[in-house]
Amino acid sequence: MRVTRLESWEFARGGEERPEWQPAEVPGHVHLDLLRLGCIPDPFWGENEREVAWVDRVTWEYRTKFEWAPDAEFPHRALLFEGLDTVCRVLLNGEEIGTFDNMFVSHEAEVSRRLREGRNCLHLQFSPAEQVGKSRREEYFRRNGVVPTVANFDARSFVRKAQYMFGWDWGPKLISCGIWKPVSLVEYAQRVRDVRVAQRHASGQVVLDVHSTLEGGGSARHQIFGPAGDLVEEIEGDGEITISNPVLWWTHDLGHPALYRLVSTCGGHTLSQNIGLRTVELRREPDAYGESFEFVLNGEPIWARGANWIPDHAFPSAIRPHGFAASSKKPRLWA
């Protein structure tokens, strides 16, 4: 497999007869590009949030150019968009290859027959998320007979985008748009697309049912490593992996959050994921007050303390990885 990250991006206001293309940072958001270039004031200062509101009412476009040459070793090619915010039309060499409108998941476009040897141009067009949400809201209300005055059912509810960006009591209304995670050209002969694992717990052992989705044919080899890094078992092809005397996953106050690692390989491509061996159930039983509502971990009732963690930044592309520690068992992470 060969993965090439696409760099050297530009952005411009959409709908212009002669767009003025400016350097863009990807991953990023349009507000951050405009601020870096001195086109808008700092949106976090004073009442500048209102001064930059126009940014969210227009379309924005991003583009990059890259060189490509075919390699018979990698006959399959796809463009991987790890994060697009949000309503986006994608064109390759002037041809539409996809439309996407979900900020929370990655997207792929198959381009094996669409790449050109030599220079290629990738062009992304972002529509104003709030306008799209309003249009969808009006259509939904009309189709379902909902009165327009219904409360707490705003345009934000109709776009798969971080809701806090539409404004909250603790944060400004900076809806924005942009390529908030990397974009890459992925070339391969075979690869592991996905691996799903189900757990079956019995006395003294856990059985993992492993099922993989592959592209390019072949079969996957699955290896499970213990919390200490030791190889526990491996199988060729999908099937069952039995773990005897398993080390269970516990919340920090009841034990150790032990993790096993499943490594799946096909045709030189490897996909790795961590797995906590545990059972979780919501116990609902009659009691003196009506019915219980209790979470049970590995057979042990737990007291589920919660906490709310708001995002580190109004623009998620500006957030850098760091550790997260809390005394709660169920942190609520804003999105």
Q: Strand order of the main beta sheet, please?
A: 3-2-4-10-7-8
Radius of gyration: 24 Å
Q: Just name the CATH architecture of the largest domain.
A: Sandwich
Helix content bin: under 10%
What is the straight-line distance between the termini? Answer: 33 Å
Describe the structure.
With 335 residues, the chain is mainly beta. It has 3 domains: 2-186, Jelly Rolls (Sandwich); 190-275, Immunoglobulin-like, CATH 2.60.40; 280-333, no CATH class. The chain has 3 helices and 26 strands. A 6-stranded antiparallel sheet has the order 3-2-4-10-7-8, with no helix packed on it. The longest helix has 16 residues, at 129-144. The chain is globular and about 70 Å long.
Characteristic terms for this protein:
335 residues; mainly beta; Jelly Rolls; Immunoglobulin-like; 3 domains; 6-stranded antiparallel beta sheet; 4-stranded antiparallel beta sheet; 3 helices; 41% strand; globular
Summed up, what is this model?
The protein has three helices and 26 strands. With 335 residues, it is mainly β. It has three domains: 2-186, Galactose-binding domain-like (Jelly Rolls, Sandwich), CATH 2.60.120.260; 190-275, Immunoglobulin-like (Sandwich); 280-333, no CATH class.
How are the secondary structure elements laid out?
Elements: E1 2-5, E2 9-13, E3 22-24, H1 30-36, H2 48-51, E4 60-68, E5 76-81, E6 84-85, E7 88-92, E8 95-100, E9 107-110, E10 118-126, H3 129-144, E11 178-179, E12 183-188, E13 191-202, E14 205-215, E15 221-225, E16 231-236, E17 239-244, E18 260-266, E19 269-275, E20 280-283, E21 286-287, E22 290-291, E23 294-297, E24 300-302, E25 306-309, E26 330-333
Parallel strand pairs: 25-26
Antiparallel strand pairs: 1-12, 2-3, 2-4, 4-10, 5-9, 5-12, 6-11, 7-8, 7-10, 13-14, 14-17, 15-16, 15-18, 18-19, 20-23, 21-22, 23-24
